[in-house]
Amino acid sequence: MRKYISFLLVAMLILLAGSVLLAQDSATTIERENFPPVRVAERSEGCLVTVESVGLPFAGFSIFNPFQRTISEMGGTGLIVRSDGYILTSPEVVKDAKILKVKYEGEDYEATVEVIDEYYDLALLRIDKTGLPAVEWGDSDTVLRGQPVVVMGAPAGLEKTLTYGFVTNIRDFRVVGPRGYDGMLVLNGFVIDAALHAGVQTGPVFNSDAKMIGVVSRKSRGGEENIGYILPSNLIRNIVDQMINEGRVCHPWLGIFPHYQYDRALALYMGIPINEVDPETGQEYDVVGVLVSTVAEGSPAAEAGIVRGDLILRADEKLLHTIKDLETIILNKGCGDEVQLVIIRNFQLRNIDIEIGDKQEDYGNMYMMGRNVSI
Amino acid sequence: MKQFFGIPTTLAILLLLVGWLALSATSGPAVADERDPLMDLQRGGVDFFDEVAPSIIQIYNGGIQLGFGAGSGSGYVIDREGHAITNKHVADESPVLEVAFFGDETESREASNARWKAELIAEDAALDLAVIKIYAPAEKFRPVRLGDSALMKPGDAVATFGSPGGDPGWVDRSWIAMHDSWLEFYNLNLGVLAEVMSFEEAFWTYREVFAMNYVQYFSRVGPRDYGSAVEYLLRPDSAINSGNSGGPCMNAYGEAVGTNTWGFGGENMGFSVPVNLLKRSVTDILEYGRARRPWCGIALHPARVPQGELETAWSIEAIPYTGTVGFDTTPDQMKIYAVNPYSPAYEAGLREGDIVLRVNGKEYKNIFEVYSYFLARELEDEVVIEYERDGHGMPPAVVKMAEKQTRYFGTDIEVYGFGGWSTDVTRYSSDITY
């Protein structure tokens, strides 16, 4: 019995020693199945289509050949957002297109343009086919800075593309917009450092679980490398729902052009009292309030009686310090909601309620100079 | 136990126990790898960012800046008194420096009061280093650990931080509203270390950068020995944009292993000065208020004066200019191309044209090894240089290492926007000597 036990103990010790020796090689290996690009490529390829268009933009008049036209061929990524044939793509590809085709699984389908939304720089197409593999939506609220992302695209000329990167930052950014500077402000959009090539706009951005957490919007305007801006998927979902159900997207808008050079000197000149320290947050600020420079004709603010020179102090009880404060409040509410403003006019406080409307195409102001962003 | 098992078995068991303990205690991997990396290129760096972001600062330079970063850059806090490391060209010669931490409200220009004041303590142009002191409550300072940059090898995961695009400074707000995407704050870029460049490669890269950006580096910020003490250079492949300057390059454990300096030559070609090189200068700056570089005053690399510029104020014959491709030293010859007349080497008798045979008894074939040797000396060290002149041997020169002078002598004219230098060759300004 004793010998038996002692042999057992010795054997256990030898096994222990052996396992310690064997365990030395503990290098981390990347398991192929868990590497995000591999997972995404295997599960999510199907939701991409290529959108091709042939258009005839007017390229100028030539007396040598009055019949000259240029043909522009464009191609870009299309994303299947609903299985009954709805495809999200870039307005640049579909605008002024005479011939519009969607290439899916080797076949060409005629596409009709349902909605073009220039303020979000998105367009919705429809093709006559059902049972398409729609993209798997993820929850963009769970995205964290530093997590890996995979961008897929289907530009013209190439089958499918895939790039890999990480979420660099989560911040507000502005979409390009029809005039180049007045697109919608996207709250909590993502900045990623994956390579973005031409034709990948509206390409899906996946997290490591192969769920789509966003859609490519644009790159850095300053030309910085590795900076790409992504619209979050929760926002895209909202936009697509509006596009399909209502035929248009509502852009929350009051119609106010704020004064961008409103600083402490101007406030003192105007005789407006300034609190240096915000009583609620304890933070120091230059100025308080948003000064109205112009109001767009026919806009909700114009109808509510806001005029040039009003200083908007509070919106929904929150003290405003920056123009972005006001814009964030308006965007977080929706079209049709009411916002309660406290303004100073002629040194008097007034309460004005405005119902948030949709952004107009034409501002109607003849005397507006420069490029201004309206809220 | 003896009664239970019997003596031999007991001894055997004890021996095995001891042997096993000895094995497991000594056969672990090297210290650096035992810790868990905070980030890798498969999982990303979510916790990594939270861990490290409080140490990174944004620096707004209130002085007039040319070009790069439009008046801002990044930096990282290194101790609890509020000292931070950044690049010389970020914090350079500025009367007003403002600093923002992660979490301070800096998203709009209008919140400019949410910044802390900072003071430039001293710079070291040869490493593109500046040390600043931030005036803020002590709990804001989360110093970053300085890692060992000598351990970094190509393929290691690195993260570069910064605020590319930065703050446009004096630009008015309507421009900001249109271009608000220009402002980036606290971008985390993950990548790998692509290359570790040698002293020679780094030296000539700096000369080229210096030549290309002469308006910025040359005119108001600098002595021409910019980057001359960078004995090796890390090249991460993660993005380094203009406002990234001064920010840290971190390894996967969250330690700073380099200071991002600039990008040059293509996309994702960024450079970081390794921290090991900075440590000595930082200690000197904090203790003495300046970087005390040991120096003897000779240049073993050739001067090259560009064609057609002999007339202009920027060319002075004997001062080493940028060398672009290659240089004409034959490997066996350690010829002295220039000696600073105010240097210990001049006092010891060395002159231009002499050939260095041995330094402290050792023969060198590579001039950058000689430079590294000089850079590793202490002040007041004596170095014996055996040399020959015109083919015949000379008595060895005993050179006492002195502190390198980085200020200007003579009648250098510094005009904002353009550098004008005295053409009086007898009055040297700071040149690239070691």
Question: Could you characterize the architecture of this molecule?
Answer:
- The complex is a heterodimer of chains A (375) and B (434).
- Chain A has helices at residues 2-22, 36-44, 91-94, 233-246, 264-270, 300-304, 323-332; strands at 48-55, 72-82, 86-89, 97-104, 107-117, 122-127, 148-153, 161-174, 185-192, 204-206, 212-219, 228-232, 252-253, 256-258, 290-295, 311-315, 318-319, 338-345, 348-355, 357-358.
- Chain A is of the alpha+beta class and 375 residues long.
- Chain A has three domains: 44-127, Thrombin, subunit H (Beta Barrel), CATH 2.40.10; 140-246, Trypsin-like serine proteases (Thrombin, subunit H); 252-358, PDZ domain (Pdz3 Domain).
- In chain A, strands 1-2-3-6-5-4 form a six-stranded antiparallel β-barrel. In chain A, strands 7-8-9-12-11-10 form a six-stranded antiparallel beta barrel.
- Chain B has 434 residues and is α+β, with helices and mostly antiparallel strands.
- Chain B is built from eleven helices and 22 strands.
- Chain B is globular and about 80 Å long.
- At the A-B interface, α1 and β8 of A face α2, α4, α6 and β8 of B.
